[in-house]
Design a protein that fits this description.
The chain has helices spanning 2-30, 87-112, 159-165, 214-240, 252-265, 267-285, 293-306, 312-343; strands spanning 35-51, 54-69, 121-129, 145-149, 152-153, 171-178, 181-189, 194-195, 201-202, 205-210. Helix 1 runs antiparallel to helix 2 (87-112), helix 2 packs antiparallel against helix 6 and helix 2 (87-112) runs antiparallel to helix 7. The relative contact order is 0.12. It is built from eight helices and ten strands. The strands form four sheets. A four-stranded antiparallel beta sheet has the order 5-4-6-7, with helices on one face. A two-stranded antiparallel ribbon has the order 1-2. The protein has two domains: 2-114 and 249-343, no CATH class; 121-210, Roll (Pdz3 Domain). By secondary structure, it is an alpha+beta fold. The protein starts with a helix and ends in a 5-residue tail after the last helix.
Length: 348
Amino acid sequence: MQVLSIILAILAFGVLVIVHEFGHFITAKRGGVQVNEFWIGMGPTILKHEYHGTMYCLKLLPVGGACVMEGEDGESESEHAFGRARLRRRILIVAAGALMNFLIGFVILLFAVQAPTDNGFITTTVASISEGSSVLEGGLQEGDTIISIDGFRLLVRSDLNVAMGMSSSTTHSVKVRRGGETVELPSVPFEARIDDGEGGKLIGLTFGATPDTVVSRVQYAALTALDDARLVWVSLGQLLGGRVGVNDLAGPVGVASTMAVTARVNIRAFLQLVAFISINLGVMNLLPLPALDGGRLVFLIIEGIRRKPVPPKYEGLVHAAGLMLLLMLMVYVTGHDILRLLTGRMMQ
């Protein structure tokens, strides 16, 4: 079972990369751009077949993939070269990989999300407050729909924990919707004071739920997808702000290990993790960094402003330097993943 879960995790990760590359592939093909090669997998080629000017390759390792377009990284005289396509078309081709990751992430969530209670999906509307709860001191009332905490907007119920975890204080500024109006509560203490009967303490809040219908499921999946995308930016902000370090990052080995563990525990949780990773890949690829799709978009935007492209040799140098830095980071992070595996500090 453990081996099967590892294989499943590796295949799922590989599929997400293929989906990304297929986004580039299909928009390039539909836009009249010549695709020279389309790979599935990495490493030595097992099978290959040429069809309509494109060499399709199946590689040995079931991870990764590539869409190689004519004139993508240099000049080409072909009228079907990437550089000869209209600017808007090129922007769409470059962004399509990330868009496909967002789309597949949403579709997976649509089928994977499950209402946690018999009453349906939990909302951010306060259903009841226990007597003696600290939130009463800050003015929070039953029936309030929490909009944001310390400026962090709540899309789903779990965002409450995320928002409170972003501050070391237990007192927060809360914005709620009450009776059709927006009310600011500047100082609401979220302190665990209520005895749970088992020796622990609770804040004393319960939240309402919306029935599990097709509409609510689509809405919940969409909000979860947006939330997953936002959490990537939150994590990046924490990294740049020094709240987390590079050693806390996980590379492919760490991600695959976590996916394998989740697959052994619960298939729905595994699918939700796959959706999160897919959306994560989409967001990360749109970051304005050299060698990533976002970096290529920056050069296309510059071209639109200048009304002429940046010389390919300069763009190539920037992407090459960025790729080297990314590979160095990947090697470093992967080394820590392997070290955590060997020392047993990664999830078992």
